[in-house]
Amino acid sequence: MVYYSKKYDVIVVGAGHAGCEAALAASRMGCSVLVLAIDLDKVASMPCSPSIGGMAKGQLVKEIDALGGEMAKITDQTAIQYRTLNTKKGAAVHSSRTQNDKILYHIAMKAVLEKQANLHVKQALIDKIIVEDNRVVGVIDYTGFAYEGTAIVLSTGTFLSGLIHIGFNSFKAGRAGEFASYGLAESLKEIGFSLGRMKTGTPPRLNKSSIDFSMFNRQDSEENPTPFSIFTDKIRLPQLPSYIGYTNENSHKIVRDNLKKSALYGGIIKGVSARYCPSFEDKVHKFPERERHQVILEPEGLDTEEIYASGLGNSLPVEIQIQVVRSVKGLEYAEIMRPAYAIEYDYVNPVQLLPTLETKKIKGLFMAGQINGTSGYEEAGAQGLWAGINAACMVQKRPSFILDRSQAYMAVMVDDLVTKGTIEPYRMFTSRAEYRLILREDNADLRLMEIGHELGLISSDNIKDLRERRVQIKEELDRIKNIIIKPEPNINEYLKEQGTTEITTGINLDKILKRAEISYEFIEKFAKSPIKLNKKVTTQAEIEIKYEGYIDRQLKEIDKFKNLEAKKIPEDFDYRKVHGLSKELKEKLTNIRPINLGQASRIDGMTPAAISVIMIALKTS
Questions:
Q1: Which residue, 239, 287, 344, 389, has fewest beta-carbon neighbours within 10 Å?
Q2: Which residues contact 145 (CB under 8 A, 6 or more apart)?
Q3: In sequence order, what E strands does 68-118 have?
Q4: Three-class SS of residue 336?
Q5: Are 64 and 72 in contact, with CB atoms under 8 Å apart?
Q6: Helix or strand or coil: residue 193?
Q7: Best CA proximity match to 366, nearest among 353, 349, 378
């Protein structure tokens, strides 16, 4: 075995969305970093939907951005459609989503990696982790060449023992047309990690010129959309529409008649698929009462004819796929450019990780992305940033980077993974976040940029702007609360037009703004600020006033939550000696090793009585 001449602080294996964020974070914090990709032409690839964001996922991207990550910036550079989801609901669940040019996304992210100081990018297929005295020391590629590193971040995506299925035809691949990594999976098993098997898939890509778009409902990009990144000043690419259509009874009959020919229902696939994102076979089989299912045709880029047929993902033979696609109105003559397929891959049960995403078994070995059982570019990117920061902190002997569930969606995700594990692909939902009214998209920068600055990922100029904005928000809130609005004819006329009650006496301005029918436009008309305020300031002021009571209530809940989080549990605490705990809980606690009572309280099967027993044991130990 021959070692490369340079020893790195951090080696990142894999250059998908997790790997890119991990490598950039560690290098920007001052570490020497090597990122190794199987194929440098697929850095930050979008093998499934060429989109970023969505419900709860948009919050993750905003948080990555606020901490100094790259995903939101590249998203804005390459977005060809913007939409905000859940606009008819409260601000807590508003989520941004973009359609992106997948080739431009890859090119833009690869360029950032290549130009980043302290960061080397190389092409290699890693087969083995080198471990000495339970500490990682390097990796070996498939040629036997080795790279030495103090910390390793594994972000392998679907490449661990990847197996693609199209009907009963199966072949080894990490993604269509790319090598899988079987040696690395065996290396992890030899070290002693417990691996599981998951399944995901992707729909067919259709030729644009073969589609009759007149049979679909056109969905245009929003006008004047808000960029994903707080650092983006302008959206520069042309915006393209998507098209919405539906399957029909004939589509469903074709699937039912050929269900046994699919890899999923023919007994070929053993991995667990996601309930929340079923394949088309799953939809037809599990929801027989549904007369139709949605199909969304999304452009894959500005300079390609390929159209992503969202909703038609399956593992049927190609000849059946053609029938299914052409059964949809408007797709009667559609040509499949790339067939749909299912892919199985190995993952590491994340209860084997610490809250830093470092493995409990091997010091210096971190994991991020789909290797931890998650699904989605956004979930991967957030974990990559988290793992990259912690790898750098370990190398530099700095305190670990750990956020709690009241601070960020990404903290909810990491806590869920390391505390509960997962047996199906984990996806972020707003419902997973107990404090989602606090964890909004619009305040991600206010929540997290100071932390990013402390880590060295956010510049002094940017943090200065943030602090000035925070002062302006407070001043505007104070101003609004101290203004009395009188029942003048023009004011009452406006209130009437908005469908809300007229006033008969003087009333505080904030009381009017709390009304559901009234927006900040009222203040602009009748009580304009003496200084010019940007939209970020006025948006925060409006949200904080409208939801003031709910926010105060949630802040009180967070105070209670923080009390449990503050009660630390020693790493060597022996749960087997705690009287009053069930055998099952003792085993779970010993396996997971929660770092505090808050994390312990979220372990499946934990009860208030058991938490009380642990608290007493901690006091007497």
A1: 287
A2: 1, 2, 4, 124
A3: 79-85, 95-100
A4: strand
A5: yes
A6: coil
A7: 353
The CA distance from 486 to 488, in Å, is 6
264 — alpha (psi -120 to 50), left (phi > 0) or beta? alpha
Burial (0-12, 13-18, 19+ Cβ within 10 Å), 556: exposed
| Residue 380 near residue 16 (C-beta atoms within 8 A) | yes
Q: Map out the domains of the chain with their CATH numbers.
A: 2-199+345-455 (3.50.50.60), 205-343 (2.40.30.260), 460-551 (1.10.10.1800), 567-620 (1.10.150.570)
pLDDT digits (tens, 9 = 90+) for 419-452: 999 999 999 999 999 999 999 999 999 999 999 9
CB contact at 8 A, 352 and 365 = no
What radius of gyration, in Å, describes the C-alpha atoms of the chain?
A: 26
Question: What are 370-425's pLDDT values in tens digits?
Answer: 999 999 999 999 999 999 999 999 999 999 999 999 999 999 999 999 999 999 99
**Distance between CA atoms of 582 and 591, rounded to whole angstroms?**
14
Q: How far apart are CA 76 and CA 97, in angstroms?
A: 11
For residues 287-315, average pLDDT: 97
Q: Kindly list the distances between the CA atom of residue 101 and the CA atoms of 76, 160, 240, 469, in Å, as whole numbers in the listed order.
A: 11, 27, 10, 33
Task: Give the type of residue at 182.
Answer: Y
Amino acid identity, position 465: D
- Number of helices (H), then strands (E), belonging to the chain: the values are 20, 22
Rounded Cα gap, residues 523 and 513, in angstroms = 8
Measuring CA to CA, which residue among 11, 41, 40 is closest to residue 27? 11
Q: Which residue has the tokens 């002693």?
A: 192
Query: Going by C-beta distance under 8 Å and a sequence separation of 6 or more, which residues neighbour residue 50?
Result: 99, 100, 101, 102, 105, 298, 299, 300, 301, 308
Amino acid of residue 66: A
pLDDT tens sequence across 478-534: 999 999 999 999 999 999 999 999 999 999 999 999 999 999 999 999 999 999 999
Please give the Cα distance from 102 to 110 (Å, whole number).
12
Which region holds residue 347: left if phi is over 0, alpha if psi is between -120 and 50, else beta?
beta
What amino acid occupies position 93? V
- Rounded distance between C-alpha atoms, residue 379 and residue 519, angstroms: 33
**pLDDT one-digit tens code per residue, 523-572:** 999 999 999 999 999 999 999 999 999 999 999 999 999 999 999 999 89
The pLDDT score that the predictor gives to residue 589 is 95
DSSP for 470-537, please give it. Answer: HHHHHHHHHHHHTPEEP--HHHHHHHHHTT-PPPSS-EEHHHHHTSTT--THHHHHHS--SS---HHH
Do 185 and 346 meet the contact criterion of CB atoms below 8 Å apart? yes
| CA distances from residue 392 to 150, 399, 447, 468 in whole angstroms, order as listed | 10, 10, 22, 30
User: Where does 155-260 have alpha helices with state H?
Assistant: 182-191, 249-257
